[in-house]
């Protein structure tokens, strides 16, 4: 039985990870137009409500099901359901009996499911219907996230070796500490699919959509980073030396990526931007997610420096290839997730190619990335097409141009249309009419 | 070896470190809300830039300098180079080599890597604090060069003087000269963080000179809610800063925590009362600044005073800082966002207060004046050292690559010039 300290650690970490989804809402919200920030934030807050509910009802029972549980239905390690865990029944029972660990673990993992779904919404800024998004979110969570989380996060360790669990971690030997594949690659691949299905915004061209509120985006980035410490260090499920290593690397990789993205901007466009610095930090956080417990801090710094530049290059892809991944979920989360997951195969302590000369782990990492990416992309594409063909995923073009907040949510984020105030230069000036 | 790892203390340390890291973005918002709408991106980037740069330096060599133990010490560093307790580097800690190797052996109550992370967040915010003195007019590149040099030559060694010590029977048995030889009490960084940053802020304000239109009231905050959001994040994080400095979730941590509530609350009242008598109105910027002044003052003293004295300290700091922020207009240095008035003055007040009212050491309780003298020497040494080096580094940068933007860029607003970005795109024409 786990100690009170372990439970305390996991409870705080869970609260920190839950805080990340509002953080994401602010990060994304600041980047869109002033007339669609409510819609943007509501896609994240909607995920909190919907995925949180599904998680309690059957998500946890799907993600953490296994043939060793009596009553298991499905294919062991691939897709299944443990009826005893529906509505968190068995975890609640053990908490009632005095061991809170299972229940707080279910809560901790629930926050992961929530943010993974919310991450996708960055691809469809300014133009998605809220109802369409919510149906998509439920379908994708059920058929992509819940099973994939089982493939990677559901395993049993005995004497330092994985002895049972999801097929990627158990059969393939994938190393993914906190969700580089499950969270980052999966959400990034799904984002690519929905961006393709929903199509480009009107006026999709570089520089057309300037962020409406840079401080709000930085607030979001700060909250994301704060919560990410709980995300990565908490994934150790105990406050020990490995958790401390994961924590340090969650500081080191993003600072490296922040610096390298800013330098990249400095030497290409000439000026380091605040949005670039924030995006750099997030790309470093993404890349260190799978690898935070497997790297020496100096290698984490190298990974951060690398991924900051790679992602800064990757966010340009959408202009070249013509898919409107509006807020760079593909360029940051898919690409950063792939880089971080593969990096373990290169520089992971005791397993990396650089230390062993053996590419086996690199191959395992690549297989894990490919399987998660393809599965997530396929489920997302089918779900989005289904929503698009039935309910419709995208607002009318007139509404999109006018700004979606008033149409979809009947709200405006800022009452800038108050006739008593007029925009003059950099300030609102009170002017009697 | 049997593991003595304490998961409770490790949890506390790691969570505290995350709290303190959040303070630097909090500071960015606190400062950002107070400047013009056309320089808020620049203002925030001075903090975020420090976060990136100092974080990298800390891993590479900052920790190795700040926590270098001389060969004679209790935790003797075998690869120490330098002068014990003053300036040195422990080569085994470069790139966090030795803390990484020890990470999973469970030989200590918490992994050293957790302490590395906790202290990293202190280095980051100390550098970021300075940036408030040079709002609206600094070049980003020049600031980054300054931040790297000041961290290397000022923060890392000063952290060693104050934070690097070993406790044994009867107190501090070895360590940096302020903590060990001098015996000054600075629980969470009144000298190393606040006096240090405040003195450097004064130096930079002198190097960069006054903004155009520097006179009272001409530079209004552009976004008061952003500033209050920043204050809230700072206060939230400060609980990790002060209580976490105990490195264990025990009674001392609880005292530090409650004082981190009591002092800023009282300081907030002190500040707005001064405002009320001077201007007839209490402002929200004043309330926010008052809370920060109280947080600064309680930082060194949070484990050394009872909550009643913490509130007394808070009121004194709130009143003194509210008066001190007007000094810049009298003396004519443009410490734009009051780094001197709040952090330098508040840090000195808090550090000296221990000499008067510290439990078991204060002269008010009949323990003589020795502690007050030690506090004053420690505060004065950090002040002078930081000020002189910041002045030298600042002038060197100003004479070579230039520290300040062109006059027309400053008047137009520096965000688009320095970062190619505007903070806000509102209004019907931009919607």
Protein topology:
The complex is a heterodimer of chains A (433) and B (431).
Chain A: H1 4-31, H2 37-63, E1 73-75, E2 79-81, H3 89-96, H4 101-120, H5 130-153, E3 155-158, E4 161-165, H6 167-170, H7 180-198, H8 214-234, H9 241-268, H10 274-291, H11 297-314, H12 317-321, H13 329-347, H14 353-356, H15 360-390, H16 397-402, H17 404-409, E5 421-424, E6 427-430
Antiparallel strand pairs in A: 1-2, 3-4, 5-6
Chain B: H1 7-34, H2 40-66, E1 80-83, E2 87-90, H3 97-101, H4 112-130, H5 140-163, E3 165-168, E4 171-175, H6 178-182, H7 190-208, H8 224-244, H9 251-279, H10 284-301, H11 307-324, H12 327-331, H13 339-357, H14 370-400, H15 407-412, H16 414-419
Antiparallel strand pairs in B: 1-2, 3-4
Helix pairs in contact in B: 1-2, 1-4, 1-8, 2-4, 2-5, 4-5, 4-7, 5-7, 5-14, 7-13, 7-14, 8-9, 8-10, 9-10, 9-11, 10-11, 10-13, 11-13, 13-14
Structural description of this entry:
The complex is a heterodimer of chains A (433) and B (431). Chain A is mainly alpha-helical. Chain A has 17 helices and six strands. Chain A has a two-stranded antiparallel sheet. Chain A has a two-stranded antiparallel ribbon with strand order 3-4. In chain A, strands 5-6 form a two-stranded antiparallel sheet. Chain B contains 16 helices and four strands. Chain B is mainly alpha-helical and 431 residues long. The mean pLDDT of chain B is 93. Classes of the chains: A mainly alpha (433), B mainly alpha (431). The interface between A and B is large, with 67 and 73 residues.
């Amino acid at each position: 039985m786990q100690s009170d300290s372990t439970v305390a650690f996991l409870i705080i970490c869970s609260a920190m990870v839950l805080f990340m989804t509002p953080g994401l809402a602010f990060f994304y919200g600041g980047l869109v137009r002033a007339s669609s920030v409510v819609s943007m934030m509501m896609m994240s807050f909607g995920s909190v409500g919907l995925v949180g509910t599904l998680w309690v009802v059957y998500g946890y029972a799907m993600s953490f099901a296994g043939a060793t549980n009596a009553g298991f239905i499905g294919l062991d390690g691939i897709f299944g359901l443990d009826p005893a865990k529906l509505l968190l029944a068995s975890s609640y029972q053990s908490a009632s009996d005095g061991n809170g660990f299972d229940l707080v673990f279910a809560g901790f993992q629930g926050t992961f499911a929530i943010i993974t779904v919310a991450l996708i919404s960055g691809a469809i800024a300014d133009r998605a219907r809220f109802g369409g998004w919510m149906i998509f979110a439920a379908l994708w969570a059920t058929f992509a996230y819940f099973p994939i989380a089982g493939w990677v996060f559901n395993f049993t360790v005995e004497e330092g070796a994985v002895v049972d669990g999801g097929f990627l971690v158990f059969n393939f030997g994938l190393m993914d500490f906190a969700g580089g594949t499950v969270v980052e690659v999966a959400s990034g691949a799904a984002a690519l699919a929905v961006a393709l299905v929903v199509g480009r915004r009107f006026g999709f061209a570089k520089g057309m959509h300037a962020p409406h509120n840079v401080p709000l985006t930085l607030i979001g980035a700060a909250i994301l980073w704060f919560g990410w410490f709980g995300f990565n260090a908490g994934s150790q499920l105990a406050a020990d030396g490995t958790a401390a290593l994961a924590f340090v690397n969650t500081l080191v990789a993003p600072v490296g990526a922040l610096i390298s993205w800013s330098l990249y901007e400095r030497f290409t466009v000439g000026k380091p931007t605040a949005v670039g610095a924030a995006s750099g930090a997030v790309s470093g956080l993404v890349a260190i997610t799978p690898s935070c417990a497997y790297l020496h801090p100096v290698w984490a710094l190298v990974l951060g420096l690398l991924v900051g530049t790679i992602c800064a290059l990757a966010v340009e892809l959408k202009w070249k290839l013509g898919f409107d991944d509006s807020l760079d979920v593909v360029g940051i989360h898919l690409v950063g997730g792939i880089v971080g997951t593969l990096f373990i195969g290169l520089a992971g302590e005791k397993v990396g190619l650089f230390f062993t000369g053996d590419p086996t782990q690199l191959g395992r990492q690549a297989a894990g990335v490919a399987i998660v990416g393809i599965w997530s992309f396929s489920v997302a594409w089918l779900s989005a097409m289904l929503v698009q063909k039935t309910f419709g995923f995208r607002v009318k073009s007139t509404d999109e141009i006018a700004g979606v907040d008033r149409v979809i949510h009947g709200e405006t984020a800022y009452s800038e249309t108050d006739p008593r105030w007029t925009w003059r230069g950099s300030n609102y000036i009170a002017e009697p009419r | 070896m049997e593991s003595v790892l304490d998961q409770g203390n490790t949890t506390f340390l790691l969570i505290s470190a995350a709290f303190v890291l959040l303070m630097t973005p909090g500071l960015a918002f606190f400062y950002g809300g107070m400047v013009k709408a056309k320089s808020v991106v620049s203002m925030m980037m001075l903090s975020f830039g420090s976060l990136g740069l100092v974080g990298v330096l800390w891993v590479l060599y900052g920790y190795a300098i700040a926590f270098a133990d001389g060969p004679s010490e209790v935790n003797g560093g075998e690869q120490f180079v330098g002068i014990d307790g003053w300036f040195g580097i422990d080569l085994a800690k470069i790139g966090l080599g030795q803390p990484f190797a020890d990470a999973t052996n469970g030989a200590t109550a918490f992994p050293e890597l957790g302490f590395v992370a906790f202290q990293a967040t202190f280095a980051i915010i100390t550098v970021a604090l300075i940036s408030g003195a040079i709002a609206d007019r600094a070049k980003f590149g020049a600031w980054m060069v300054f931040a790297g040099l000041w961290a290397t030559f000022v923060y890392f060694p000063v952290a060693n003087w104050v934070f690097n010590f070993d406790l044994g029977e009867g107190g501090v048995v070895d360590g940096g000269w302020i903590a060990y030889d001098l015996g000054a009490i600075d629980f969470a960084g009144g000298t190393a963080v606040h006096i240090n940053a405040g003195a450097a802020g004064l130096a930079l304000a002198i190097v960069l000179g006054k903004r155009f239109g520097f006179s009272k009231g001409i530079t209004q905050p552009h976004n008061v809610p952003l500033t209050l959001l920043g204050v809230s994040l700072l206060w939230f994080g400060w609980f990790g800063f002060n209580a976490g400095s105990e490195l264990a979730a025990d009674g001392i941590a609880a005292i530090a925590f409650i004082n981190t509530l009591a002092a800023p609350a009282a300081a907030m009242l002190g500040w707005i009362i001064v405002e009320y008598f001077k201007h007839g109105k209490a402002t929200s910027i004043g309330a926010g600044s008052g809370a920060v002044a109280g947080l600064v003052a309680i930082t060194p003293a949070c484990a050394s005073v009872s909550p009643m004295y913490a509130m007394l300290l808070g009121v004194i700091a709130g009143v003194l800082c509210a008066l001190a922020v007007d000094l810049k207009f009298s003396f004519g240095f443009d410490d734009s966002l009051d780094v001197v008035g709040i952090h330098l003055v508040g840090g000195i007040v808090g550090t000296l207060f221990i000499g008067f009212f510290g439990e078991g050491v204060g002269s008010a309780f009949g323990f003589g004046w020795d502690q007050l003298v030690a506090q004053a020497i420690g505060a004065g040494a950090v002040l002078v050292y930081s000020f002189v080096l910041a002045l030298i580094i600042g002038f060197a940068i100003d004479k070579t690559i230039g520290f300040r933007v062109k006059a027309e860029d400053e008047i137009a607003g520096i965000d688009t010039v320095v970062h190619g970005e505007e903070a806000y795109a509102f209004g019907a024409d931009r919607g």
